[in-house]
Design goal:
Elements (H helix, E strand, L loop, with lengths): L10 E2 L6 E2 L7 H14 L14 H8 L4 E5 L6 H12 L1 H6 L3 E6 L3 H11 L5 E3 L4 H5 L3 E2 L4 E2 L2 E5 L6 E5 L8 H14 L7
Parallel strand pairs: 3-4, 4-5
Antiparallel strand pairs: 1-2, 3-8, 6-7, 8-9
Length: about 200
C-alpha cells in the first residue's frame, strides 16, 4: 500500500520565471482531445493518432544541399517560440541570400502544424515529431517535461555534423545570430564528391 505522496518542491521555470508546483505533462489522451478541440475551432479535421514523425533524412532532403537552421519550438503556446518563428519568417529573404534554409520542428502533429502555419503566416516548412524521436536524437527533447527544449539545430549540407544551440530567452530574438551561423556554414561547406 502506497503512503501519502511526497510534497513537490516549487521550481522556477527558466523561460518565464514563474514558479511551478508540479512538473506534470498533459496525458496523451487529453492532449489529443485538446488538439481536436483546437483544430475544430480552426475548422480542421482532428489529427490521426498514428502519424509518422519527421526524420533526420527529411531534414536533409528539405535543406537541398544548403545549411539548414531547425527552429525547435516547445509548442504554439510558447510565446517566445512563436515570436522567433515570426521574426525568421520576415527575414527569410536574407536567409536565402546567404545560402541557407529554415524549417521549424515541434512535437505537434502535422494537422496542428499546418493550421498554425496558415494562421501565423510562416513561409517555411513546419514539421511534426509527435513521438519525440527526432527531437531526442537531436538532443532537444526533455522527457521529464514532456516537450522539446526550445532552441536551434544547424545541419551542414555535406557533413553529418549537427550544431545545437539550446534555450530561448523571452524578448530576445536570435535572428541575426541564425543568419550569421547559416552564412558561416555556407561558406565553409564546400562539398567534395565521393569516389
Amino acid at each position: 500500500m502506497a503512503g501519502p505522496r511526497p510534497r513537490e518542491r516549487p521550481t522556477r521555470c527558466v523561460y518565464t520565471g514563474r514558479v511551478s508546483r508540479t512538473r506534470r505533462s498533459i496525458p496523451p489522451a487529453r492532449a489529443l482531445l485538446l488538439a481536436s478541440l483546437m483544430l475544430g475551432a480552426l475548422g480542421q479535421a482532428a489529427p490521426a493518432q498514428a502519424e509518422q514523425s519527421a526524420t533526420l533524412d527529411d531534414l536533409r532532403r528539405m535543406a537541398e544541399g544548403r545549411p539548414l537552421a531547425v527552429v525547435v519550438i516547445k509548442g504554439y503556446w510558447c510565446q517566445a517560440c512563436v515570436q522567433q518563428l515570426q521574426a525568421l519568417s520576415k527575414r527569410l529573404d536574407e536567409v536565402r541570400a546567404v545560402g541557407g534554409a529554415v524549417v521549424a520542428l515541434s512535437n505537434e502533429d502535422q494537422g496542428t502544424n499546418a493550421a498554425f502555419k496558415r494562421k501565423l503566416g510562416f513561409d517555411f516548412p513546419v514539421l511534426g515529431d509527435p513521438g519525440g524521436r527526432l527531437l531526442e536524437r537531436l538532443g532537444m527533447w526533455m522527457p521529464e517535461m514532456g516537450h522539446p527544449l526550445p532552441g536551434f539545430v544547424f545541419l551542414e549540407p555535406c557533413r553529418p555534423h549537427v550544431i545545437r544551440r539550446p534555450g530561448r530567452i523571452p524578448g530576445r530574438l536570435l535572428t541575426d545570430a541564425v543568419i550569421r551561423t547559416l552564412q558561416q556554414l555556407a561558406t565553409r561547406s564546400e562539398c567534395t564528391p565521393r569516389i
